[in-house]
Design goal:
Length: about 160
């Protein structure tokens, strides 16, 4: 028995996303859409996907992809796309801001527009807040130092 619940995952080829897509249970989600910009170069995460599901891959960046089309006809949106490499975030803080804040807002706005989520059910993984992904609705955040993400003060 496979449910017909349709799922969109942003950032499925990142560290968390690639583990998640391979851990999907057989009885959860019929259609699974994967939206990724392939910047992690984890193409092998697309090999040996769980059986019993219809996977479709959409190459796109959450900053520019037609998110309204991506969320159309889905039941659940799991937003995992983010830049989480703290040391690299200092090299390009504008890109971190654009992906982690502006991109997240685009995903949320598209989801709200298609009633895929409501404000009461909107949640963000705790690890994302520690890794420099701002809360939805919060002021733009400065990149988080790796030491801060691990709970240690910098030397």
């Amino acid at each position: 028995y496979v449910t017909e619940t349709r799922l969109l995952i942003t950032g499925p080829l990142g560290h968390v996303g690639s583990a998640f897509i391979h851990a999907l249970r057989r009885d959860r989600y019929g259609d699974v859409r994967l939206l990724d910009d392939f910047s992690s170069l984890r193409y092998t995460s697309l090999f040996h996907l769980p059986a019993g599901k219809r996977f479709s891959v959409i190459e796109g960046d959450i900053r520019t992809a037609p998110l309204e089309d991506c969320v159309k006809d889905v039941d659940v949106v799991l937003h995992l796309a983010a830049i989480t490499d703290a040391p690299a975030s200092f090299d390009d803080p504008e890109r971190v801001q654009a992906v982690n804040d502006d991109g997240t807002r685009r995903v949320v706005d598209a989801s709200l527009a298609h009633r895929r989520v409501d404000h009461e059910r909107l949640r963000q993984p705790a690890f994302a807040r520690r890794r420099g992904v701002p809360d939805v609705g919060a002021e733009p955040a400065e990149p988080v130092r790796d030491e801060q993400a691990r709970g240690r003060a910098p030397d």
